Amino acid sequence: MRKFILEDGEGSSYPRPKRQRPSSPSSPPPPPPEFPMEEIAQEEEEDDDDEDTSDESEEEDEEEVEEIVRPPPRPPQQQNNQMETVGLQLLQPRLYESPIFLEPTLVRPSRNGAIFVALSDPEVLDCPTCCETLTIPVFQCENGHVACSSCSKKLQHKCPSCAMPIGDNRCRAIEKVLESLKVRCSNWRYGCRENICFSKKYEHDKCCSHALCTCPLLGCNFQGSSKQLYLHCRRKHLGKLTSFQFNTSFPLFITVNDKFCILQEDKEGVLFILNNRSDTLGHVITVSCMGLSSSKPGYFYELMTRAEGSNIRFQSSTRNVRTRVDDPPSLGCLLVPNDFLGTYGQITLDVCIWRLGSYPAISSVRA
Predict the structure, then answer these.
(1) pLDDT tens across 126-156, in order?
(2) Where is the SIAH-type domain (predicted)?
């Protein structure tokens, strides 16, 4: 009779008790233990339940880890005392968010900060009578109709809209708006960066040094500030310019057919126009400055012409223009008689233009 020994891990998957050697060869072997099928099915269901509970416990552990790693909710943004954020704001990405997050916010300035507004109808701040910009003081009638000070005097303090007396009743609300309202200069695109009071805009436009100027040469449509015009003439029309320096006399030759001549100062970038207009008694010659405002003082200049031992000298100040005209405004003119013309109709002049602040006063010249 052969003996078989089952080692650990071999044989059936169900545990089976080790066989005991009988005490005597005549005793029968003990019967194997019985495993009913119902108990086997219950054990398999309990194993499945244990696996499910283990999976659920692992998921709960992962959620607890995520809750621990996740940062606390972001506190609300603190409002700035001067200005709140407006529009779309780019926030810093967090671990559980996408890299870029856009949050729409509202634009509202604080009470102490300035605000920017756009007037859809700028004429709302114009005088309804003269259609000019309202200036302080602004008067109103009992019905609330407003009028500027000049119109109020012309209408003898009677409202043009309802014929009610205006008197000295001033509209303080409109005046405060005019005082606080700032606008940029009309010549902003030509280099002026000043922000001026709305009620003084008209005065600033008249004296702005960046006012629009046009090229005096025929067929050229260039427009720009006086500095831009100077550079344009140097680049495009250099052969048609006469260069000079301040406080230095220079000769100039023109003919009776020359309507004008452009004078260019070499160092300070100023352009002048010498105009020649025919008259019954001779030729009228004046000098104008290009670009400066009409309210600023002009340059003092001197013109002199000679003919056979005689000479005519004229001294005056330039009038400032922004475009060339055939009959420019002037404080005076040099009249060149026909007897002073050359054989071929040429006019010989000695011209001297003084720098601003260094030319002699007109009163001393007249004296």
Answers:
(1) 888 888 878 888 888 888 888 888 888 888 8
(2) 180-238
